[in-house]
Amino acid sequence: MKKRIFDQLNWLNDEGPFVTLTSPSTFVVSDMTQDRLHFKNLMRSSKDMFVEKYPDLDYEMYENALQSFYEDRTLWQGGALSFIFVVNRNHAKVLKLGIDLEPQVYVDDVPYIIPLIEDVQFLGHFYLLGLNRDSFRIYEISGHEIKEVVLPDDAPTTLEKALGDDLSTSGVAHGSGRGSESYYGGVGTTRDERAVDRTNYFYVVDRFLNDFEDLDSSLPIELMTLPENRSVYLELSKLINLDRNMGILVSPSDFNSKKILNEALDAMHNKTNRTVESLFDMLDRYKAAGRVNSDKTLLKDQAQFGAVHSLLVSKERLDIHDYETNKIVIDVLNAGGDVFILNADRRLGADRMTALLRFKV
């Protein structure tokens, strides 16, 4: 989990102070002015909080970074359920999230990262590769919204475009791929021609996606295809952000966006349920072994010296002003542990937060 988060913001452990703002997005272009007005109010609040907490530090660089986000009108045209803005003295970045967030301001020595954990955990924002044996499309999904990624005209969206018309009986293409550079290279001829063509085509698609700079490399790519295609593609793919754990084992067939979104949401829902069930099973095992702790005072030290294997936090506990929980979360991740945000459950203890410990302490 830490890798996924730090792939998006690799400077989260830099020296603070940090200003973190969360803001909902309406998805409605006509409401863009209202979204920006809310953000402007958050900017004012962040300045007041910063000056009060760090009176000897200059806020100007933070203000300039947030002002540039405010003035970027393309940012406010949708594509996310919420935004999170993270700024320190040297860096500033906005991330689009697929979860609902209230407008909030957080000013501290460390950034507020709990929304990032929720987004990663529940696959709030990701790409979906819809792959047939002879065609593909790629979509960006955020929350319950889907949009097809616009590809260049010479993208290998079909087998014919990728391999050209000059296929030999061995499956080796003599035509060129994208532009003057061929994405296609022949492979062995020991399988039937259709199988060879499929494998060759998947190589082309994978190389194209690896080279396509418009894709955000920090977002996972989920694969939607038939089981027989999935096994072939996973074996050859070099996409570093391809999720090899969750499979949407149906054909995208006619690339109907509504059907694709429904299948993706169903797969995410099933995966989340399996994950939650597995976590509570693990909680039961750790309890039986005497390796759990729900005492926040003890947990602060355990998080720092690496005793926490997994931290389970109830959503009802989350509060933007609970700086202590956020710090514990960061310490757990930095020590190699995992953090999971779960719906309210009495099994998480009176403090609504339970740590599964690597060893008895």
Instruction: State the order of secondary-structure elements, H for helix, E for strand.
Output: HEHHEEEHEEEHHEHEHEHEHEE
Through-space gap between termini: 25 Å
* Apparent shape: globular
How many runs of DSSP E, i.e. beta strands? 13
Query: Order of strands across the biggest sheet?
Result: 7-6-5-8-9
Beta-strand fraction estimate? 15-25%
Task: Compute the CA-based radius of gyration.
Answer: 23 Å
Helix content: 25-40%
Helical element count? 10
Main sheet summary: 5 strands, mixed
Instruction: State the secondary-structure class.
Output: alpha+beta
Write a structural description.
The protein is α+β, with helices and mostly antiparallel strands. The chain is built from 10 helices and 13 strands. It has helices at 2-8, 32-53, 60-71, 114-121, 159-163, 193-211, 227-236, 257-288, 296-304, 323-334, and strands at 18-24, 82-87, 92-97, 104-108, 125-131, 136-142, 145-148, 221-224, 242-248, 292-293, 308-314, 338-342, 353-357. The strands form 3 sheets. It has a 5-stranded mixed sheet, sandwiched between helices. The chain has a 4-stranded antiparallel sheet with strand order 3-2-1-4, with helices on both faces. A 4-stranded mixed sheet has the order 10-13-11-12, with helices on both faces. Strand 6 and strand 7 form a beta hairpin. The two termini are 25 Å apart.
